[in-house]
Design a protein that fits this description.
Blueprint lengths: L2 E5 L6 H10 L6 E5 L2 E3 L6 H9 L14 H7 L3 H11 L6 E3 L1 H12 L5 E2 L1 E3 L1 E7 L5 E6 L7 E6 L3 E5 L11 E4 L3 E9 L2 E6 L9 E3 L2 E2 L4 E10 L2 E9 L11 E4 L3 E8 L2 E7 L1
Helix pairs in contact: 4-5
Length: 274
Amino acid sequence: VTHAFRSKEFEPHVDVQRHIVRALGLREYEMIQFGRITVEGIPLSKRYIRPLVESGILEGWDDPRIPTLRGLFRRGINPRAIVRFFYELGPSKVDATVNMEAIASINRKILDPIAERYMFVPNPIKAKIEGLTPPVIAQVEVHPDSKRKREIRLDESEVFIASSDLEGLKPGDELRLRGLVNVTIRSVNPDEVSLRVSEEQRVKGVKIIQWAPVRNGVPARLFVPESPYSFRMLGGYGEPALRGIKEGEIVQFVRVGFARLDRRDPLTFILSHD
């Protein structure tokens, strides 16, 4: 051991420890103290986290709602992002309070060039498309920087879209189903939307939304951490390619955020961040 790193509350003991080391004839080592880091609104201390684990509020020390290393990795935070975060923070004896967005910002830069894009529709509503003659093959980008396309076969003239995408829209408004077709809203009901294929298939100036097939869409869940005490579980459907994602793989759900596949049965992703 050449260096000992610990928080600054041990600083008053440095002289005593050095005296003991010298008295015993042991090799001396460098003692470096640093300020404590607090994540805004989230406990880091074991004495606060342990009761939450033991009471069952948290699943364990790898619960993605807490910023333990295991929790961050399970949430989809790349180890390089954590190293980079502390490198940029720098050594200091001044206590610091940070928020998760600081780590997410670094992680986003690491994941964005490599994470493949997929479509996931949370809180879905069924939309029937008038004027669409199946079967239809949609082509969606695997990644904005890649020329590769992924094909989605649509064997029916209806899809799932996110109910939130209809907020503020009215009959006559136009949308584009990503990689598929432009549609115009005919009517909106609580449990179903009626669309028709637009006469003009332009891309610019039209809101592009994700969708999933009704017949072969993949049921999936998205775990959204909120605090050590709460989370949201969003149910929805994704494109068929979700079945091929490996456990532990991190992808980007279009217009939702980066997510890591946590388990396959049921298909459950954990939202890393947007």
